[in-house]
Design a protein that fits this description.
9 helices, alpha/beta, five-stranded mixed beta sheet, globular, 27% helix, 336 residues
Amino acid sequence: MTASLTDVSTYLPGEPIGAEYYARHAESDELRDNLMFRAPRWRHHVAEDETAVDMVERAAAGLLERHGADVLAQVDVLITHTQLPDMPFYGGGAAMAHRLGMKPEWVVDLHNGGCAAFVLGLKLARQLLTSGEGRCALVAVAQNSAGQVFDQPTVRRRAQAAVPGDGAAVGLVTRSDESPILDVVCRTYGEYAGEMTISTDPPRKWWQPGPGEGCIGFTEGRITKVLARGNRQVPEVSLALCKRIGLSPSDIGLFVTNQPNRVFLRNWREALELPATRHADTFDECGNLFAAGIPVNLDRAISDGRLETGDVVLMAAFAHAGDFAGAAAVRWGGRG
């Protein structure tokens, strides 16, 4: 049996927020000139009262429009990832299923996938569907930390705050040969687990009350390590996948990655010797979308006609400080 990524649909909240928004809040920061934090022109922020469930529901609207009101009722497997869960003790899968009118047998909330969660979700959906656990799966991801964590009054003064943007996406996976998922490669680098940390002043555990708003604990040394790992891992899993499916990078119709910054985007396509025209990104329109980056860029490329029927799209990303990376390949069958 074959599993296909049949369609993808996305959502960007609110009106675009320009780079000047952060420029007017910026203060002296030892990381201000670091290449990791060169700001995009625009990004989007979740509304104050907007939940991850709201975002996924809005992202799914395109599927309903194109495939009919009953398409989600057929979902047997729901796989979700939320960057900042609405509640800390459980994921949002059950609430998303209820909101979307689904009664799936499988509801799986992923946390370890990070920026590569969409790829990990495709791997899990493919495995479940081809083993007979259902005929239809929905992979739903929500990035909602830009307008919540990074827009806190003291955090938005930092260089790191100007890069993230918010967005959500859903991918419809069916047991069919319409747009077959050719293969998926996922790798865990456990030696780097825990190197992404939350920093507060004074220090405390993330759940403890106290003064000082939490942000990502970046230092020059940590950034250097993350840059080196990301530059290595995304090409590594991409080339491993190409080898498994018997294609060379030059055979790839479209390369779609997560988009932490412009440096990674340039280095990744150069490593695969691909021109910029075959590497989709929305960094200057959306910023770093974390797990939503791949499906948002894929949806944009489909809508813009950059992905043609029969093309192979290679999706790849790494997560956190480099503790996970994955790549997936799909032979696109067109948006019906």
